[in-house]
Design goal:
CATH topology of the largest domain: inorganic pyrophosphatase (n-terminal core)
Helix content: 40-55%
Shape: globular
Number of strands: 12
Number of helices: 12
Distance between the termini: 36 Å
CATH class of the largest domain: Alpha Beta
Length: 315
């Protein structure tokens, strides 16, 4: 609810004061990098963060005229859009779209005419590291954690800091405070990942949201040898969030499965949100689709109950 209010306030401020509006993905550092690049190009501009589901559900977002959209589906009225998701259909006046790009920020730096700007190039480099799950620099590690640890208003401030200082922002006390929040989540996610047995297909169903990083859990399981991962987590009153993952060079396509559920993403990382009443129907819809598409006679999955205990189940 609070996120929606911040989003509405940002949009109205841009309209009333005739300032450029930039829309960027709220979920990861690639979206944050796109937001920072927008602020570098348009210092007076207003950054608005949203998820793909927000775009789908918000009439205001689809009604608003955007100067720039980064790392998100096209909401409708857009001058410039930079993206690399194969499931997102282009629609902007000027599209910088390449599904083979390692990060949306790679397209954003071209779209915003910042190629050759050293500060911008370093931000893009970190975005590539985080979006390909190949974090090797300390700057990328801290900025990824800070983005995931930040609340909405803090994300806006982080984008402004990045636009001003570039990757040197990692030295700022505010950024380190944000990162420290996520490092604890990261640690708990790693502890759980070590308890999960690895096979070709690893499907994990959570009875409740335990506050870990489910995308990171998917990455860890893929790194340990699972070719296909699916993490299902209850969200909202009647919803289930699905995190799909696949190892590079595996025969699995995460985006195909997510798209079938109304979501999207890449071949190796995708997501969807499914609602039904009761919630179990949403869960069965997702598991049933996966069972059918993977042509399984029996779908085995790991159930994590509210006490954190693991149970083997099948469908």
């Amino acid at each position: 609810m609070l996120e929606s209010l911040y989003r509405i306030a940002g949009i109205l401020c841009g309209i009333v004061f005739n300032r450029e509006l930039g829309l960027s993905d709220i979920g990861d550092f690639d979206g944050m990098a796109c937001a920072a690049l927008f602020k570098m190009k348009y210092p007076r501009g207003i950054v608005v963060f949203a998820s793909p589901r927000d775009i789908k559900n918000s009439v205001l977002i689809r009604w608003t005229a955007w100067e720039f959209v980064g790392d998100l589906p096209c909401p409708g009225k857009v001058k410039i859009r930079a993206d690399h998701h194969e499931t997102n259909t282009p629609c902007a006046e000027r599209e910088f779209y390449d599904p083979s790009a390692p990060a949306a920020a790679v397209m954003a730096i071209k779209a915003l005419g910042l190629t050759g700007n050293l500060k911008a190039e370093k931000i893009v480099s970190c975005a590539v590291e985080t979006d390909t799950a190949n974090i090797i620099s300390e700057e990328a590690r801290i900025l990824n954690a800070a983005t995931k640890g930040a609340r909405y208003s803090e994300k806006v401030k982080l984008a402004e800091l990045l636009a001003e200082k570039g990757t040197e922002a990692v030295k700022d006390e505010f950024v380190m405070k944000l990162a420290s929040r996520y490092f604890d989540v990261e640690r708990r996610t790693e502890q759980l990942a070590e308890r999960i047995p690895i096979s070709d297909q690893v499907i994990v169903v959570f009875e409740k949201n335990v506050g870990i990083s489910y995308r990171y859990l998917s990455i860890l399981l893929n790194r340990r040898g699972a070719n296909f991962t699916l993490i299902l987590v209850p969200r909202g009153l009647f919803g289930v969030r699905a995190y799909f993952g696949a190892r590079p060079n595996s025969p699995y396509n995460s985006a195909f499965l997510a798209r079938a559920l109304g979501g999207g993403g890449h071949q190796y990382a995708a997501g969807a949100y499914v609602r039904a009443f009761p919630r179990r129907q949403a869960l069965l819809k997702i598991l049933g689709l996966v069972k059918s598409e993977l042509r399984l006679k029996k779908l085995n999955y790991l159930f994590v109950n509210k006490d954190g205990e693991l149970e083997d189940r099948s469908l």
